Amino acid sequence: MTVTTPAPPDALERPTGPSLSPSRAADFKTCPLLFRYRTIDRLPERATADQVRGTLVHAVLEHLFDLPAAERTPEAAAALVAPQWSLLLEQEPELAALFDEAVTAEPVLDQMPSAEGARLAEFLRGAGALLEGYFAVEDPRRLEPAEREALVSTLVDDALLIRGYIDRLDVSPAGDLRVVDYKTGGAPREAFEGRALFQLKFYALVLWRTRGVVPKVLRLLYLKDAEVLDYSPDAEELERFERTLLALSEAIERAKRDHDFRPKPSRLCDWCSHHAFCPEFGGTVLPYPVTPVDTPAEVSADPLG
Ligand code: SF4
Q1: 8 Å CB contact between 131 and 57
Q2: Which tens digit of pLDDT belongs to each residue from 212-242?
Q3: Sign of the alpha-carbon dihedral angle for 3, 6, 12, 17
Q4: What is the value of pTM for the model shown?
Q5: Residue of 195, 260, 262, 275 with the most ligand 1 atoms within 8 Å of its CB, for mutation
Q6: What's the rounded Cα separation, in Å, for the pair 51 and 199?
Q7: Most CB atoms within 10 A, among 41, 116, 127, 295?
């Protein structure tokens, strides 16, 4: 289900103005050259099994809430894995390349003795383990989310369009908002926590500006570790965050004008696909594209999350 939160009327009609998604903003903070390769050059990146498993688990959790509350059991979630995987393969057949060959839309695991079948089985088992992690920290029978996979956007300072997808938004009877984000990555958590909180503050700012309510809780659910991290922002903090985003947007526009996107090595380089074109890894920076394929409204899932 996709729900679009009302934005200023002209916001979504401004395809050429500066705009930011949490992922792309975090990319620029992480490494300007990574931002350039992803957002301007649009270099292809092959999805990792962790990323695709994350997409699958997000889809299962989204559709779990289509069921009546009493039926949202671990067994019901496990039963959604194969059909959701089939749907993903229908939408993106190239994902089958993760297992090289012979990944069918209706996998019958015990009839696939090949290495590919074993890799698929391991992949699906991993999805099941993440769902177990989910049930260890939440009981979905007791929840009725207000929105799932909700696209939210707003215009900041009449100049910058910010937008992104929220995994889940819970609203209490008193009107308190809780923003929930599922983290499924296999990467060390501490390497990504700052990035994850940045993402949640981004959503909190959009909700505050569009609904006039500061979300009471920003919740990260780490499914692999079966852990919950709650954070409560306040209005002053979100105001500061807004100024940070405006400064970041100005820095991005400056970098585009000067074609100056420098590499900034960090632990996150381990997850970067562009070593061949990065001087930090002995590569040569690609010439700046003559016609940049800029994507200001990029809202894709965070490949590092
Ligand atoms: S390898 Fe590291 S420094 Fe180089 S582009 Fe990727 S993230 Fe940036």
Answers
A1: yes
A2: 999 999 999 999 999 999 999 999 999 999 9
A3: negative
A4: 0.83
A5: 275
A6: 17
A7: 127
